[in-house]
Amino acid sequence: MKIIVLLMSIGLLGWWTVVVPLQIIVAAVTFARGRGRLAGFSLVALALAVAGVGAARMVVDWHPDGFGQVGLVLPSGHSALAVVAVGTLALLAGPGRPRLRIAAAVATILAVAWVMTLGGHTLGDVVVGLGLGGLSVLVAGLVSGLFRPFADRRVPPQ
Questions:
Q1: Which of 90, 70, 71 is nearest to 82 (CA)?
Q2: Sign (positive or negative) of CA dihedral 58, 110, 83, 46
Q3: What is the pTM of this model?
Q4: Per-residue pLDDT averaged across 89-104, rounded?
Q5: pLDDT tens digits along 13-37
């Protein structure tokens, strides 16, 4: 397989027309299989990424001159959605599959590299998009109960 075909295929993980149906299908299937938390995660992460990118673009539109000087022109929705899609796929893989999670991280990097290769965004756009996607995944994980950062840190009784 040529590298350009691979990059184009993985790059689809950031397209709205691919990620939105993917997240909805994941939510429906996981809910039907009794995995309500994962279904909730899928929808919350998608909603937060869409809202976050929309809000960031409104801020940029509000005062474009100040942001243009630092290279931030248009926060990348492709990058944010790639993180959400790959994060969801990594959670579907389950905790016992570290190789698949590494493959998910590589897929995110390749998807973002494809966005940069197309030249539609600056480095700042992509970094902000990655941050918004990562924040969406983190908050969705906390809200859905899939991520419990303080669950194992119980104080032993004295």
A1: 90
A2: positive
A3: 0.76
A4: 74
A5: 677 788 888 889 989 999 999 989 9
Q: What single-letter amino acid sits at 87?
A: G
What angle, rounded to 10 degrees, do the helices at 98-118 and 77-93 form? Answer: 170
Residues with Cβ < 8 Å from 96, sequence gap 6 or more?
Answer: none
Residue 46 CA: distances (Å) to CA of 2, 96, 108, 137, 138: 31, 25, 16, 8, 12
Other beta carbons less than 10 A from residue 54's beta carbon: 13
Between CA 31 and CA 112 the distance in angstroms is 30
HSE-up of 152 (CA within 13 Å, CB side)? 3
Distance between CA 11 and CA 78 in Å, rounded?
8
Other beta carbons within 10 Å of 15: 16
DSSP state of 14: G
Phi, psi of 120 (to 5 degrees): -80, -15
pLDDT at 110: 72
Q: What is the model's pLDDT at position 79?
A: 83
